[in-house]
Design a protein that fits this description.
This protein is of the alpha/beta class. It has helices at residues 19-27, 41-54, 68-76, 109-119, 142-149, 152-155, 165-183, 228-242, 258-267, and strands at residues 4-9, 31-36, 61-65, 81-84, 100-101, 125-128, 132-135, 187-192, 198-205, 214-219, 248-254, 270-277, 280-288. The strands form 3 sheets. The chain has a 5-stranded parallel beta sheet with strand order 2-1-3-4-5, with helices on both faces. Strands 6-7-8-9-10 form a 5-stranded antiparallel beta sheet, with helices on both faces. α1 links the parallel β1 and β2. α8 (228-242) crosses α9. The radius of gyration is 23 Å and the shape is elongated. The chain starts with a strand and ends in a 9-residue tail after the last strand.
Amino acid sequence: MLKRVVFIWGKEEIIKDMTALLRELEEKHVEACVMGADSDASVILNEGSTVQANENGSAGTLYITDNALWQKRLWEKKLPVIIYLHEGNREENFMLAEYAIERIAEIELESLELAYLRLTGQPWTILTTDRCIIRETTIDDVDSFYEIYQEPSITEYMEGLYADKQAETAYIQDYIKNIYRFYGYGMWTVLEKTDGKVIGRAGINWREGYDIPELGFVIGVPWQRQGYACEVCQAILAYGKEELGFTDFQALIMTGNEKSRTLCEKLGFVYQETVEVDRREYMRLILRFEQKTAAKK
């Protein structure tokens, strides 16, 4: 959770553009500290490093600076930092930066919180349903995935995990780094809200050779036949439509998997064709949301 934002500015007049953001931080009880680029580096960096180490890299402090030297100092200390680009610093070298913002007058706390989570390696919570939490996958989920996928009925109609757990862990690490950071969505982990138990995976991805996003899902055997898959998939489709702007979705279901086909048809998918992927036969189902049209005057 983001608890504190430290602004380190080389250009003092930026402060006047931060009025709305500073007000929101105060209202949400997030501490704000504004400092000049000529501040004592040793005090700020030592304090930041100590707190980060004490709290396992999640101190709740995010740094924002418009100064390349400060950005480098913070990056070297492994402290989460965002750069602020403006006309006065376009020539500075910010090659180490992972996140940059412009027009700070329009920045909201939610955007800073998401950037903080990404920079400190923490998963985004995507959405919640009545019974479930859907969040980005973490390395800690891998053991739970192996428990779910060890059931023969799970891998009968879908690809399994790597036989070597280290290979699966490496795959998840790459997925977190490359897919979540690039797209902002993908396959996520599904947890039961009451106890935080991992019960499956679901999400939206792109399959090579197709031009519309694909819904994917798997729910562990102990939680099947209880409506979890339908509940989660309905929420994800709504999220994809309302938050990501998708109007069409596909689902590829291996021939013979009638349970998944029945679920997809319940969600509104319609059979389109049979296709072959990696020498396996799949039913391709399509869901198209009606696009709203402007009212005629």
